[in-house]
Amino acid sequence: MNAPPPPMPAHWHCYRWTGERRTYDGESARRPPHLVVQDISPQEWKQIAAASPAFMASDVPPLEVPHWLLRPARMIKATFEQPGKASAWYRDQVSELSPSFLTDHDKDSSRQAEQLAAAEERLSWGGDVVGGWYLRGSGFASVQVVACRANRIRPTIPCPMR
Question: Which of 24, 90, 113, 116 is the most buried (most CB within 10 A)?
Answer without folding.
Answer: 90
